[in-house]
Amino acid sequence: MNVSLVNAFVANGTGGNPAGVVLHADELTDTQKLHMAQVVGFSETAFVSQGEDADFNVSFFTPTGEVDFCGHATLATFSLLYQKGVIEAGDYTQKTKAGVLGVRIEPNGYVVMNQRLPEFIQTFDYAAVAELLGMETEYLSTTHLPIEAVSTGLADVIVPVPAGSLDQLNIDQERLYQFSQEHNVVGIHAFELNSQGSQITASCRNFAPLFGIPEESATGSASGALASYLTKYHVVETGIELHESRTHHFVFEQGRAMNCCSQLTASVELQSGVITSVMVGGIAQEFGQKTVPI
């Protein structure tokens, strides 16, 4: 089988997070998909087949198993379908284990993905998370912001960190693995807010050792969760005013500490103070192909 190698959430033609994309995967078994994901070796590989209740069925496999949803692999998938002329600009649906989700492709190739409405799952005290980051509890608490597990398809623990500390995090991968198992979360999505006037709302890092990902350079699902978190707590320092009934837009950078800086956009629609839509977008580029025997 042929696997397309696609960088998702590239910024000015560089960076991004690589995903494998397998088109025409209708006849593949889950065992074969897992094998291919392991051979490709990226954090996720997407497998695309003809849809019945949606335009396409898409499944996502890490090197360790299947996950319900993957934002950057979704972006890679629909960007590839568009670049290969399989689909045109417009609105489509994908059936995933996280539900049937919409995807819009703009004429310039920009892909915007619907995510599930946010689920705010559980808050954690600073002490429980500080040791995972290699940080003193008192220092982490200076953000005065909650630490909360949020899901718009996958549950990540959203962790605000003090300005200037993001690149210095020292993750205890084994402890985070155990913590993620215990609390049924993918991992940690840490962020620091950028100063007012910046075009970037927040800089982020994502750690998911439970799924074989020590660190990821762009995480679409967690970006939707972060945008929902920022909206819930009205946490913005870049000059954006949050209103009760309006679509709010955010720009995130991720991967800086990996020398692979990526850019992700997110929008959250509020109606009378209630989140009614979460979308994440970006640009993807194919950079190669790999043949995997099955």
From TrEMBL:
The keyword Lipid metabolism does not apply. The active site is at residue 44. PANTHER family: BIOSYNTHESIS PROTEIN, PUTATIVE-RELATED (PTHR13774:SF39), PHENAZINE BIOSYNTHESIS PROTEIN (PTHR13774). The keyword Nucleus does not apply. Its EC number is 5.1.-.-. GO terms for cellular component: cytoplasm. InterPro entries: Phenazine_PhzF-like. It comes from Vibrio palustris. GO terms for molecular function: isomerase activity. It comes from the Bacteria. This is Putative isomerase YddE. Belongs to the PhzF family. The gene is yddE_1. It is an enzyme of class 5 (isomerase). Keywords: Isomerase. SUPFAM superfamilies: Diaminopimelate epimerase-like.
